[in-house]
Design goal:
Layout: H1 10-15, H2 20-30, H3 43-62, E1 76-78, E2 81-83, E3 87-89, E4 94-101, H4 107-125, E5 130-136, E6 142-148, H5 150-169, H6 175-184, E7 192-194, E8 197-198, H7 206-232, E9 242-245, E10 248-252, E11 258-262
Parallel strand pairs: 4-5
Antiparallel strand pairs: 1-2, 3-4, 5-6, 6-7, 7-8, 9-10, 10-11
Helix pairs in contact: 4-5, 5-6
């Protein structure tokens, strides 16, 4: 374990994107004005620590392609920046990060929280991507390969440099810097690949816009149609073969299935 007061790690990359209050708290820790929170009595944190070995062993048995080496992985340094990795996948030559989260989380929520940490690890280890494996509650681990663009990593490295300059100058970070950090940490669709798949923005595509408008405006009518279809079938008692009226015909076949026909040119 490295000296966290003299180095900047992955969890610090996460913290500088969480707003001014958290940035100042981190700055106080780095400058010796405050001690880091004692997480030894925080259940969710210790649960993640406790399950990490099991998490690693599970990947070894069920996801051999992304199975990391046994710990400890030596801390990697890039000057005052450090990366304490959970594991390293020899098969793909990529770092691995383990998380244990609540059952309501999904990949998007995990990335919205931890992407700066993952990008930091990519930068320090000089890896082209990183494996993120997370357990939701008591579900099987979800394993995804995350690749962040060089432009995003460059922005993050500049934010880290700026924060560290406040530490070196012994000056409290400004609210303006905090706002910049939050804004720069937001990932753009073209800055990330997930399992080698990209996200595209269709803003400005007129054909997409027209079709999207049609889908949105007809959804309520479609939902109303499906609801009426379900309700009208309740009039078909088991001994009824055919029911019709007001442009709607219901018929029961020999298997008992009810078929519906709507005469579009008739007023209901």
């Amino acid at each position: 374990m490295y000296d966290r007061t003299k180095h900047f790690g992955g969890s610090d990359a996460y913290r500088i994107t969480r707003g001014h209050k958290e940035i100042v708290k981190l700055w106080k820790e780095k400058t010796g004005r405050a001690q880091p929170d004692d997480l030894s009595a925080v259940f969710r944190v210790q649960l993640g620590v406790f399950t990490e070995t099991f998490h690693r062993e599970w990947l070894y048995r069920h996801h051999p392609t992304v199975s990391p080496v046994e710990p400890p992985v030596p801390v990697m340094y890039r000057g005052w920046k450090a990366a304490s990795l959970d594991g390293w996948c020899e098969n793909t030559d990529l770092p691995v990060e383990f998380k244990h989260t609540n059952e309501r989380s999904d990949l998007d929520s995990m990335l919205s929280t931890y992407l700066p940490q993952l990008a930091h690890y990519m930068a320090i280890s000089k890896a082209k991507a990183i494996w993120l494996s997370f357990i939701r509650g008591n579900n099987d681990p979800e394993v995804n390969k995350i690749e962040v663009s060089a432009s995003y990593i460059d922005k993050l490295m500049l934010l880290e440099d700026e924060f560290w300059s406040y530490v070196k100058l012994d000056e409290e970070p400004t609210e303006l810097f905090a706002e910049e950090a939050v804004e720069e940490a937001e990932i753009k669709p073209d800055e990330i690949l997930i399992n080698d798949m990209r996200t595209v923005s269709m803003e400005g595509n007129n054909e997409w816009a027209a079709l999207a408008f049609e889908l949105v405006t007809t959804q309520k009518a479609r939902d109303a149609f499906e609801s009426a279809k379900k309700e009208i079938k309740k009039f078909m008692d088991k001994d009824v073969r055919l029911a019709e009226g007001h442009g709607v015909k219901l018929s029961r076949d020999k298997r008992g299935y009810i078929q519906m026909k709507v005469e579009e040119d008739e007023l209901l």
